[in-house]
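Saturday, quiet lab. Running sequence design on the C-alpha coordinates for the scaffold JK sent over.
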Protein backbone atom coordinates (compact mmCIF):
# COMPACT_ATOMS: atom_id res chain seq x y z
CA UNK A 1 0.00 0.00 0.00
CA UNK A 2 1.39 3.39 -0.98
CA UNK A 3 2.15 5.37 2.06
CA UNK A 4 1.59 8.69 0.35
CA UNK A 5 -1.83 7.60 -0.85
CA UNK A 6 -2.95 6.32 2.58
CA UNK A 7 -1.56 9.19 4.62
CA UNK A 8 -0.90 12.31 2.58
CA UNK A 9 -0.17 14.31 5.76
CA UNK A 10 2.58 11.93 6.90
CA UNK A 11 5.45 14.48 6.79
CA UNK A 12 3.57 16.77 9.13
CA UNK A 13 2.77 13.84 11.41
CA UNK A 14 6.40 12.78 11.43
CA UNK A 15 7.49 16.27 12.24
CA UNK A 16 5.08 16.32 15.16
CA UNK A 17 6.41 12.97 16.45
CA UNK A 18 9.98 14.22 16.05
CA UNK A 19 9.16 17.29 18.06
CA UNK A 20 7.64 15.27 20.94
CA UNK A 21 10.32 12.56 21.18
CA UNK A 22 13.92 13.29 22.14
CA UNK A 23 16.44 12.22 19.48
CA UNK A 24 20.09 11.85 19.00
CA UNK A 25 20.19 14.68 16.47
CA UNK A 26 22.59 15.05 13.54
CA UNK A 27 21.17 12.17 11.44
CA UNK A 28 20.49 13.13 7.79
CA UNK A 29 18.11 11.74 5.16
CA UNK A 30 19.34 11.37 1.59
CA UNK A 31 17.64 10.60 -1.76
CA UNK A 32 19.05 9.32 -5.00
CA UNK A 33 18.66 10.55 -7.62
CA UNK A 34 17.95 14.13 -6.65
CA UNK A 35 16.60 14.76 -10.19
CA UNK A 36 15.20 12.35 -12.71
CA UNK A 37 13.43 12.66 -16.07
CA UNK A 38 11.36 9.79 -17.44
CA UNK A 39 8.85 9.29 -20.24
CA UNK A 40 5.19 9.66 -19.35
CA UNK A 41 3.84 6.40 -17.98
CA UNK A 42 7.34 5.21 -17.18
CA UNK A 43 8.88 4.11 -13.88
CA UNK A 44 11.87 5.07 -11.79
CA UNK A 45 13.61 3.68 -8.68
CA UNK A 46 14.22 6.02 -5.78
CA UNK A 47 16.77 5.20 -3.02
CA UNK A 48 15.94 6.73 0.35
CA UNK A 49 18.71 6.43 2.99
CA UNK A 50 19.71 7.90 6.33
CA UNK A 51 22.92 8.38 8.28
CA UNK A 52 21.25 7.19 11.49
CA UNK A 53 23.21 4.37 13.23
CA UNK A 54 20.09 2.98 14.87
CA UNK A 55 17.48 1.17 12.88
CA UNK A 56 15.42 4.14 11.61
CA UNK A 57 11.86 4.48 10.46
CA UNK A 58 12.37 5.22 6.72
CA UNK A 59 9.78 5.91 3.98
CA UNK A 60 8.83 7.76 0.80
CA UNK A 61 5.92 10.16 0.70
CA UNK A 62 4.30 10.54 -2.79
CA UNK A 63 0.94 10.51 -4.55
CA UNK A 64 2.41 8.14 -7.14
CA UNK A 65 2.06 4.39 -7.24
CA UNK A 66 5.04 3.00 -5.36
CA UNK A 67 6.45 -0.34 -4.41
CA UNK A 68 9.32 -1.17 -2.07
CA UNK A 69 11.73 -3.33 -4.06
CA UNK A 70 14.76 -3.55 -1.73
CA UNK A 71 15.95 -2.46 1.74
CA UNK A 72 18.84 -2.46 4.15
CA UNK A 73 19.51 -1.29 7.72
CA UNK A 74 19.37 2.36 6.80
CA UNK A 75 18.09 2.45 3.19
CA UNK A 76 15.16 1.47 1.08
CA UNK A 77 14.58 1.44 -2.66
CA UNK A 78 11.15 2.26 -3.98
CA UNK A 79 9.90 1.85 -7.52
CA UNK A 80 7.52 4.52 -8.77
CA UNK A 81 5.45 3.39 -11.80
CA UNK A 82 2.84 4.74 -14.18
CA UNK A 83 4.13 8.28 -13.69
CA UNK A 84 1.93 10.70 -15.67
CA UNK A 85 3.07 14.10 -14.49
CA UNK A 86 5.84 15.97 -12.72
CA UNK A 87 6.13 15.19 -9.05
CA UNK A 88 8.24 15.91 -5.96
CA UNK A 89 8.48 12.69 -3.89
CA UNK A 90 9.84 13.15 -0.33
CA UNK A 91 12.16 10.73 1.44
CA UNK A 92 11.79 10.91 5.21
CA UNK A 93 13.40 9.17 8.18
CA UNK A 94 12.93 9.17 11.92
CA UNK A 95 15.98 8.53 13.96
CA UNK A 96 14.88 9.96 17.31
CA UNK A 97 14.32 13.04 15.16
CA UNK A 98 12.62 13.49 11.83
CA UNK A 99 14.48 14.57 8.69
CA UNK A 100 13.31 14.64 5.10
CA UNK A 101 14.52 15.52 1.61
CA UNK A 102 12.67 15.83 -1.71
CA UNK A 103 13.63 14.89 -5.26
CA UNK A 104 12.49 16.41 -8.57
CA UNK A 105 10.80 13.97 -10.95
CA UNK A 106 10.14 15.39 -14.43
CA UNK A 107 7.95 13.63 -16.97
CA UNK A 108 8.53 14.15 -20.69
CA UNK A 109 6.22 13.27 -23.55
CA UNK A 110 5.87 14.15 -27.16
CA UNK A 111 3.04 16.30 -28.53
CA UNK A 112 -0.10 14.39 -29.37
CA UNK A 113 -0.94 16.67 -32.29
CA UNK A 114 1.21 18.93 -34.44
CA UNK A 115 -0.91 20.48 -37.18
CA UNK A 116 -0.53 23.35 -39.62
CA UNK A 117 -3.86 25.09 -40.10
CA UNK A 118 -5.35 24.65 -43.61
CA UNK A 119 -4.05 27.11 -46.20
CA UNK A 120 -6.28 29.11 -48.53
CA UNK A 121 -7.13 27.21 -51.72
CA UNK A 122 -5.56 30.12 -53.62
CA UNK A 123 -3.44 32.96 -52.25
CA UNK A 124 -3.04 36.23 -54.20
CA UNK A 125 0.57 37.17 -54.90
CA UNK A 126 1.61 40.25 -52.92
CA UNK A 127 -0.78 39.66 -50.01
CA UNK A 128 0.15 38.54 -46.50
CA UNK A 129 -0.45 34.95 -45.50
CA UNK A 130 -0.60 33.94 -41.83
CA UNK A 131 0.68 30.44 -41.08
CA UNK A 132 -0.73 28.92 -37.90
CA UNK A 133 0.58 25.82 -36.17
CA UNK A 134 -1.26 24.21 -33.27
CA UNK A 135 0.46 21.89 -30.83
CA UNK A 136 -1.50 19.80 -28.36
CA UNK A 137 0.39 18.19 -25.48
CA UNK A 138 4.11 17.75 -25.06
CA UNK A 139 6.28 18.33 -21.97
CA UNK A 140 8.29 19.76 -20.45
CA UNK A 141 7.14 22.95 -22.14
CA UNK A 142 10.30 24.79 -21.16
CA UNK A 143 12.16 22.49 -23.54
CA UNK A 144 9.52 22.49 -26.32
CA UNK A 145 9.90 24.73 -29.39
CA UNK A 146 7.62 25.20 -32.43
CA UNK A 147 9.28 25.74 -35.84
CA UNK A 148 7.39 26.90 -38.96
CA UNK A 149 8.90 25.90 -42.30
CA UNK A 150 8.71 26.56 -46.04
CA UNK A 151 10.10 23.35 -47.43
CA UNK A 152 13.28 23.03 -45.39
CA UNK A 153 13.61 26.79 -44.89
CA UNK A 154 12.99 27.88 -41.32
CA UNK A 155 10.57 30.81 -41.14
CA UNK A 156 10.04 31.13 -37.39
CA UNK A 157 11.05 29.48 -34.12
CA UNK A 158 8.88 30.05 -31.03
CA UNK A 159 8.42 28.53 -27.58
CA UNK A 160 5.33 26.40 -27.08
CA UNK A 161 3.06 28.44 -24.84
CA UNK A 162 -0.47 27.57 -23.74
CA UNK A 163 -2.56 24.49 -24.29
CA UNK A 164 -2.92 23.96 -27.07
CA UNK A 165 0.07 26.04 -28.06
CA UNK A 166 -0.23 28.14 -31.21
CA UNK A 167 2.63 29.59 -33.20
CA UNK A 168 2.07 32.00 -36.10
CA UNK A 169 4.19 33.70 -38.72
CA UNK A 170 3.22 36.12 -41.51
CA UNK A 171 4.73 35.68 -44.97
CA UNK A 172 4.29 37.77 -48.12
CA UNK A 173 3.06 35.41 -50.83
CA UNK A 174 5.05 35.47 -54.06
CA UNK A 175 5.17 33.62 -57.35
CA UNK A 176 7.96 31.43 -55.95
CA UNK A 177 5.55 30.19 -53.31
CA UNK A 178 3.31 28.55 -55.92
CA UNK A 179 3.19 24.81 -55.17
CA UNK A 180 5.57 25.28 -52.20
CA UNK A 181 5.06 23.01 -49.18
CA UNK A 182 4.60 24.57 -45.74
CA UNK A 183 4.72 22.67 -42.45
CA UNK A 184 5.59 22.97 -38.79
CA UNK A 185 7.41 20.77 -36.34
CA UNK A 186 8.10 20.60 -32.65
CA UNK A 187 11.51 20.13 -31.07
CA UNK A 188 11.71 18.67 -27.57
CA UNK A 189 15.32 19.34 -26.61
CA UNK A 190 16.36 17.11 -23.70
CA UNK A 191 20.04 16.96 -24.55
CA UNK A 192 20.91 18.92 -21.41
CA UNK A 193 19.18 16.16 -19.39
CA UNK A 194 21.21 13.44 -20.99
CA UNK A 195 18.63 12.53 -23.62
CA UNK A 196 18.25 13.66 -27.24
CA UNK A 197 16.46 16.10 -29.51
CA UNK A 198 13.01 14.76 -30.37
CA UNK A 199 11.14 16.15 -33.39
CA UNK A 200 7.51 15.80 -34.43
CA UNK A 201 6.35 17.21 -37.80
CA UNK A 202 2.97 18.11 -39.16
CA UNK A 203 1.73 16.94 -42.52
CA UNK A 204 2.87 19.41 -45.19
CA UNK A 205 0.35 21.68 -46.90
CA UNK A 206 0.84 22.92 -50.46
CA UNK A 207 0.18 26.56 -51.31
CA UNK A 208 -1.03 27.80 -54.67
CA UNK A 209 -0.48 31.47 -55.47
CA UNK A 210 -1.92 33.42 -58.38
CA UNK A 211 -2.01 36.76 -60.18
CA UNK A 212 -5.21 37.97 -61.86
CA UNK A 213 -4.83 41.54 -63.13
CA UNK A 214 -7.57 44.07 -62.45
CA UNK A 215 -8.35 44.36 -66.16
CA UNK A 216 -11.05 42.79 -68.29
CA UNK A 217 -10.48 40.18 -71.00
CA UNK A 218 -10.42 41.24 -74.64
CA UNK A 219 -13.22 39.92 -76.85
CA UNK A 220 -12.75 39.81 -80.62
CA UNK A 221 -15.96 38.99 -82.48
CA UNK A 222 -18.01 40.28 -85.40
CA UNK A 223 -20.78 42.58 -84.24
CA UNK A 224 -23.27 41.15 -86.73
CA UNK A 225 -23.62 37.49 -87.72
CA UNK A 226 -25.90 35.93 -90.30
CA UNK A 227 -28.06 33.09 -89.04
CA UNK A 228 -26.92 29.72 -90.31
CA UNK A 229 -23.29 30.80 -90.78
CA UNK A 230 -20.25 29.92 -88.70
CA UNK A 231 -18.48 32.77 -86.93
CA UNK A 232 -15.27 32.99 -84.83
CA UNK A 233 -14.90 34.23 -81.26
CA UNK A 234 -11.57 35.02 -79.59
CA UNK A 235 -11.01 35.97 -75.95
CA UNK A 236 -7.53 36.93 -74.74
CA UNK A 237 -6.02 38.07 -71.46
CA UNK A 238 -2.45 38.89 -70.39
CA UNK A 239 -0.62 39.10 -67.07
CA UNK A 240 -1.95 35.85 -65.59
CA UNK A 241 -0.05 33.56 -63.24
CA UNK A 242 -0.12 30.67 -63.57
CA UNK A 243 -1.93 31.09 -66.90
CA UNK A 244 -2.30 27.32 -67.32
CA UNK A 245 -4.56 27.21 -64.22
CA UNK A 246 -6.97 29.87 -65.54
CA UNK A 247 -10.44 28.75 -66.62
CA UNK A 248 -12.32 30.45 -69.44
CA UNK A 249 -16.03 30.39 -70.17
CA UNK A 250 -17.42 31.79 -73.40
CA UNK A 251 -21.19 32.14 -73.52
CA UNK A 252 -23.75 33.52 -75.92
CA UNK A 253 -26.75 34.56 -73.84
CA UNK A 254 -26.05 31.70 -71.41
CA UNK A 255 -25.19 29.08 -74.03
CA UNK A 256 -21.71 27.63 -73.54
CA UNK A 257 -19.57 27.88 -76.68
CA UNK A 258 -17.01 25.33 -75.38
CA UNK A 259 -13.83 27.21 -76.33
CA UNK A 260 -10.39 25.77 -76.97
CA UNK A 261 -7.86 27.41 -74.62
CA UNK A 262 -4.14 27.78 -75.33
CA UNK A 263 -1.48 29.36 -73.10
CA UNK A 264 1.73 31.24 -73.79
CA UNK A 265 3.76 32.35 -70.78
CA UNK A 266 1.42 34.68 -68.83
CA UNK A 267 -1.22 34.92 -71.59
CA UNK A 268 -4.16 32.85 -72.72
CA UNK A 269 -6.23 32.63 -75.88
CA UNK A 270 -9.70 31.08 -75.95
CA UNK A 271 -11.16 30.39 -79.38
CA UNK A 272 -14.55 29.09 -80.43
CA UNK A 273 -16.47 28.69 -83.68
CA UNK A 274 -20.21 28.87 -83.40
CA UNK A 275 -23.05 28.46 -85.85
CA UNK A 276 -25.72 31.09 -85.37
CA UNK A 277 -29.24 29.72 -84.98
CA UNK A 278 -32.37 31.20 -86.47
CA UNK A 279 -33.94 31.02 -83.01
CA UNK A 280 -31.30 33.43 -81.70
CA UNK A 281 -32.08 36.15 -84.23
CA UNK A 282 -31.76 39.57 -82.64
CA UNK A 283 -29.27 41.14 -80.22
CA UNK A 284 -27.48 38.59 -78.05
CA UNK A 285 -24.90 39.11 -75.30
CA UNK A 286 -21.54 37.44 -75.77
CA UNK A 287 -19.53 37.12 -72.56
CA UNK A 288 -16.05 35.94 -71.65
CA UNK A 289 -15.27 35.09 -68.01
CA UNK A 290 -11.69 34.30 -66.91
CA UNK A 291 -11.43 32.67 -63.48
CA UNK A 292 -8.19 32.15 -61.59
CA UNK A 293 -7.94 31.39 -57.90
CA UNK A 294 -11.15 32.57 -56.29
CA UNK A 295 -11.45 35.65 -58.52
CA UNK A 296 -12.96 36.30 -61.93
CA UNK A 297 -12.73 38.95 -64.64
CA UNK A 298 -15.37 39.29 -67.32
CA UNK A 299 -16.38 41.29 -70.37
CA UNK A 300 -19.46 41.40 -72.60
CA UNK A 301 -20.14 42.43 -76.18
CA UNK A 302 -23.40 42.60 -78.09
CA UNK A 303 -23.74 40.44 -81.19
CA UNK A 304 -26.69 40.90 -83.55
CA UNK A 305 -27.80 37.76 -85.36
CA UNK A 306 -29.77 38.48 -88.51
CA UNK A 307 -31.47 36.67 -91.35
CA UNK A 308 -30.91 38.13 -94.83
CA UNK A 309 -31.57 35.86 -97.83
CA UNK A 310 -30.48 36.91 -101.30
CA UNK A 311 -33.08 38.91 -103.24
CA UNK A 312 -35.51 37.10 -105.51
CA UNK A 313 -34.68 38.05 -109.11
CA UNK A 314 -37.08 36.68 -111.73
CA UNK A 315 -37.51 36.93 -115.49
CA UNK A 316 -41.00 36.46 -116.89
CA UNK A 317 -39.33 34.08 -119.39
CA UNK A 318 -35.63 33.21 -119.24
CA UNK A 319 -35.58 32.24 -122.95
CA UNK A 320 -37.64 34.17 -125.50
CA UNK A 321 -37.81 34.89 -129.20
CA UNK A 322 -36.98 38.27 -130.62
CA UNK A 323 -39.56 40.99 -130.14
CA UNK A 324 -40.95 39.33 -126.99
CA UNK A 325 -41.68 41.62 -124.03
CA UNK A 326 -39.73 40.45 -120.96
CA UNK A 327 -40.49 41.56 -117.41
CA UNK A 328 -37.58 41.60 -114.91
CA UNK A 329 -38.51 41.84 -111.26
CA UNK A 330 -36.43 41.93 -108.04
CA UNK A 331 -37.81 41.69 -104.53
CA UNK A 332 -36.17 41.32 -101.08
CA UNK A 333 -37.35 40.58 -97.57
CA UNK A 334 -39.14 43.14 -95.50
CA UNK A 335 -36.88 45.95 -94.36
CA UNK A 336 -34.43 45.56 -97.24
CA UNK A 337 -34.03 47.83 -100.28
CA UNK A 338 -33.18 46.63 -103.78
CA UNK A 339 -31.51 48.09 -106.85
CA UNK A 340 -31.97 46.51 -110.28
CA UNK A 341 -29.55 46.99 -113.14
CA UNK A 342 -28.69 45.27 -116.39
CA UNK A 343 -27.58 47.50 -119.18
CA UNK A 344 -30.00 50.22 -118.12
CA UNK A 345 -29.49 53.01 -115.60
CA UNK A 346 -30.08 51.74 -112.05
CA UNK A 347 -33.08 53.14 -110.29
CA UNK A 348 -33.13 54.42 -106.74
CA UNK A 349 -33.32 51.72 -104.06
CA UNK A 350 -36.77 50.56 -103.05
CA UNK A 351 -38.45 47.52 -101.53
CA UNK A 352 -39.21 46.23 -105.05
CA UNK A 353 -37.80 46.93 -108.52
CA UNK A 354 -39.10 46.06 -112.00
CA UNK A 355 -38.26 46.76 -115.63
CA UNK A 356 -39.60 45.66 -119.04
CA UNK A 357 -37.89 45.34 -122.39
CA UNK A 358 -38.69 44.23 -125.93
CA UNK A 359 -36.14 41.44 -126.43
CA UNK A 360 -33.77 41.75 -129.37
CA UNK A 361 -30.78 39.78 -130.60
CA UNK A 362 -28.54 42.23 -128.76
CA UNK A 363 -30.22 41.20 -125.49
CA UNK A 364 -29.06 37.57 -125.81
CA UNK A 365 -26.75 36.75 -122.88
CA UNK A 366 -27.67 39.96 -121.12
CA UNK A 367 -27.04 39.78 -117.33
CA UNK A 368 -29.50 41.40 -114.97
CA UNK A 369 -28.09 42.30 -111.55
CA UNK A 370 -30.11 42.88 -108.39
CA UNK A 371 -28.50 44.18 -105.19
CA UNK A 372 -30.34 44.13 -101.86
CA UNK A 373 -29.33 46.37 -98.95
CA UNK A 374 -30.19 45.79 -95.28
CA UNK A 375 -29.06 47.85 -92.30
CA UNK A 376 -28.21 45.74 -89.22
CA UNK A 377 -26.82 47.29 -86.03
CA UNK A 378 -25.54 50.33 -87.95
CA UNK A 379 -23.92 48.28 -90.72
CA UNK A 380 -25.17 48.21 -94.31
CA UNK A 381 -25.15 44.66 -95.66
CA UNK A 382 -25.42 43.59 -99.31
CA UNK A 383 -26.82 40.50 -101.02
CA UNK A 384 -26.75 40.11 -104.80
CA UNK A 385 -28.51 37.97 -107.39
CA UNK A 386 -28.02 37.65 -111.16
CA UNK A 387 -30.02 36.20 -114.02
CA UNK A 388 -29.18 35.75 -117.71
CA UNK A 389 -31.65 36.32 -120.57
CA UNK A 390 -31.46 34.11 -123.63
CA UNK A 391 -32.98 35.49 -126.84
CA UNK A 392 -33.63 33.14 -129.77
CA UNK A 393 -33.00 34.60 -133.24
CA UNK A 394 -32.12 33.39 -136.75
CA UNK A 395 -28.66 33.23 -138.43
CA UNK A 396 -26.80 36.42 -139.35
CA UNK A 397 -23.79 36.94 -141.55
CA UNK A 398 -22.70 40.52 -141.24
CA UNK A 399 -20.06 42.20 -143.37
CA UNK A 400 -17.95 42.98 -140.29
CA UNK A 401 -17.85 39.31 -139.33
CA UNK A 402 -17.56 37.78 -142.83
CA UNK A 403 -15.86 39.95 -145.47
CA UNK A 404 -17.10 39.57 -149.03
CA UNK A 405 -13.70 39.81 -150.77
CA UNK A 406 -10.26 38.42 -149.85
CA UNK A 407 -7.13 39.00 -151.89
CA UNK A 408 -4.11 36.96 -150.73
CA UNK A 409 -0.56 36.42 -151.94
CA UNK A 410 0.12 32.89 -153.10
CA UNK A 411 2.19 30.95 -150.53
CA UNK A 412 1.34 33.28 -147.65
CA UNK A 413 -0.08 31.97 -144.42
CA UNK A 414 -3.67 33.09 -144.03
CA UNK A 415 -6.76 32.32 -141.94
CA UNK A 416 -10.18 32.72 -143.44
CA UNK A 417 -12.45 34.23 -140.83
CA UNK A 418 -16.19 34.12 -141.30
CA UNK A 419 -18.40 34.25 -138.21
CA UNK A 420 -22.11 33.53 -138.27
CA UNK A 421 -24.31 34.69 -135.40
CA UNK A 422 -27.57 33.31 -134.08
CA UNK A 423 -29.23 31.53 -131.17
CA UNK A 424 -29.09 28.61 -131.46
CA UNK A 425 -25.63 28.88 -133.02
CA UNK A 426 -25.98 28.27 -136.78
CA UNK A 427 -23.92 25.82 -138.84
CA UNK A 428 -21.72 27.64 -141.39
CA UNK A 429 -20.41 26.17 -144.67
CA UNK A 430 -18.79 27.97 -147.63
CA UNK A 431 -18.95 26.12 -151.01
CA UNK A 432 -17.38 27.23 -154.29
CA UNK A 433 -19.68 27.80 -157.17
CA UNK A 434 -19.36 25.17 -159.82
CA UNK A 435 -17.64 22.34 -157.92
CA UNK A 436 -19.03 22.82 -154.37
CA UNK A 437 -15.50 22.69 -152.96
CA UNK A 438 -15.44 23.66 -149.26
CA UNK A 439 -13.53 26.69 -148.19
CA UNK A 440 -11.58 25.95 -144.97
CA UNK A 441 -12.70 28.45 -142.35
CA UNK A 442 -10.71 29.21 -139.20
CA UNK A 443 -7.56 27.22 -140.20
CA UNK A 444 -4.16 28.81 -140.68
CA UNK A 445 -2.63 27.41 -143.91
CA UNK A 446 -0.54 28.46 -146.92
CA UNK A 447 -2.52 30.04 -149.77
CA UNK A 448 -2.57 28.16 -153.08
CA UNK A 449 -4.11 29.04 -156.42
CA UNK A 450 -6.56 26.18 -156.04
CA UNK A 451 -8.57 28.05 -153.36
CA UNK A 452 -9.36 30.98 -155.66
CA UNK A 453 -12.96 31.37 -156.65
CA UNK A 454 -16.41 32.57 -155.64
CA UNK A 455 -17.99 30.89 -152.63
CA UNK A 456 -21.45 30.90 -151.21
CA UNK A 457 -21.30 30.92 -147.36
CA UNK A 458 -24.52 29.61 -145.85
CA UNK A 459 -25.44 29.83 -142.14
CA UNK A 460 -28.31 27.54 -141.15
CA UNK A 461 -30.16 26.89 -137.82
CA UNK A 462 -33.66 25.72 -136.82
CA UNK A 463 -34.71 29.36 -136.94
CA UNK A 464 -33.74 29.89 -140.59
CA UNK A 465 -30.79 30.37 -142.95
CA UNK A 466 -28.82 33.20 -144.56
CA UNK A 467 -26.34 33.22 -147.52
CA UNK A 468 -23.42 35.51 -148.31
CA UNK A 469 -21.15 35.47 -151.37
CA UNK A 470 -17.43 35.50 -150.72
CA UNK A 471 -14.70 36.00 -153.40
CA UNK A 472 -11.17 34.72 -152.85
CA UNK A 473 -8.43 36.16 -155.10
CA UNK A 474 -4.91 34.66 -155.21
CA UNK A 475 -2.05 36.69 -156.76
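Result came back. Writing it out in full:
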Amino acid sequence: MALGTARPALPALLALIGALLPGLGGAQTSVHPLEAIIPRGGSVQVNCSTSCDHRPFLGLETQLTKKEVAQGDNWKIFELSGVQEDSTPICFSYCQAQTMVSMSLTVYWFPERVELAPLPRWQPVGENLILRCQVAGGAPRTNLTVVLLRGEEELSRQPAVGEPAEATVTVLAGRDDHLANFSCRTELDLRSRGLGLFQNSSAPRQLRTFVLPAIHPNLATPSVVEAGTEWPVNCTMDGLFPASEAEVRLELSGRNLHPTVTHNNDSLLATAHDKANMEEEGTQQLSCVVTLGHQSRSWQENVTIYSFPAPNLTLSEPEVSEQTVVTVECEAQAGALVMLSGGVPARLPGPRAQLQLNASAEDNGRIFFCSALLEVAGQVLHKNQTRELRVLYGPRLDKRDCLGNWTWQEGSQQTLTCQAWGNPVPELKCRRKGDNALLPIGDLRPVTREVAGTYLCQARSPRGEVTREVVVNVI
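Notes for JK: The two ends are 161 Å apart (CA to CA). Residues 133 and 199 are 15 Å apart (CA to CA). Ask whether to fix the surface positions before the next round.
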